[in-house]
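Journal club prep — side note

Before the paper discussion, L.F. wants everyone to see what a predicted structure for a comparable chain looks like in token form. Sequence:
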Amino acid sequence: MKRHGFEPASLVMGLVLLGLATVFFLDAAGGWDPSRPATVALAGGGLAFAAVTSVVTRLIRRRQRARGAAA
């Protein structure tokens, strides 16, 4: 398998999707009855959090590259 760098946004999005899958599983099993707005808010909030994580990661890596080139 080809090695690749760590992507925090992928980790965040994976955890959000696992959370959504858990919500849907509990709903199907009858263990929990979530409201539709709560589910949409969880999905939208997770997407927004993953996007912010991606932007912050990109900014940090760009700054580290600039410092490495200046040295």
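L.F.'s comment for the group: Residues 37-71 form one domain. Keep this in mind when we get to the figures.
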